[in-house]
Amino acid sequence: MNGMRACGTVAAALLPCAMALVGCGTGGRTTGRAAPPDTAKWAGIYESDTLPGAARPRVLLVKIGPDTVASAALAFVGLGTTLHPGWWSAKGDVLRVQPIRPDGTANELAFVWRREGTRLVPVQWDRGIYGEQGATLTRRVPAAQVPADTAAGARR
Fold it and tell me: How many domains does the chain have?
């Protein structure tokens, strides 16, 4: 399991780079797509448990960023990570993530999840890639920041 956590950590570290690249050339948005209704509700990093059905263990990480920018990373333990930039939209408790090619066209079938607390339960996905069960995702809780030492005072 430590290998899976390390793999997920590396993939999560690469997601901001992918997010930056997604915005290049298109301003991070595609003309005609509506702004998300509630970015604060959805923004964050979501992670699956180990996905079944592959020769190697793999984990899906999805980052929902500001505006409509999204990125999915499929981390293969011991092999590396594939990054899939894209866009997202939401309506009610349903989230849709569409991976895109560099020219902005759809790369594969969109992921659609239904929000249940901190989990995203799959509704629609590419069964050829992610299997019959899909990928249930859990929102990562950001690490707590160490508070500043205010008792010692400022050094002069």
Answer: 1
Residue 144 lies in a domain: no
Within-domain flag for 79: yes
57-80 residue pLDDT tens: 889 999 999 888 999 999 988 889
pLDDT digit string, tens, across residues 24-37 = 434 444 444 555 45
DSSP string spanning 66-93?
A: STTEEEEEEEETTTEEEEEEEEEEEETT
Asked, for residue 105, whether it belongs to a domain, the answer is yes
- Domain annotation covers residue 146: no
Alpha-carbon distance of 93 to 117, in angstroms, equals 10
Identify the CATH number of the domain in which residue 135 sits.
Answer: 2.40.128.500
Contacts of 82 (CB under 8 A, 6+ apart): 73, 74, 76
What backbone torsions phi and psi does residue 21 show, to the nearest 5 degrees?
Answer: -70, -35
Q: Which residue has the higher pLDDT, 148 or 114?
A: 114
Domain that holds residue 47: 2-28+36-139
Helix (H), strand (E), coil (C) string for 88-147? EEEECCEEEEEEECCCCCECCCCEEEEEECCEEEEEECCHHHHCCCCCCEEECCCCCCCC
CA distance 146 to 13: 20
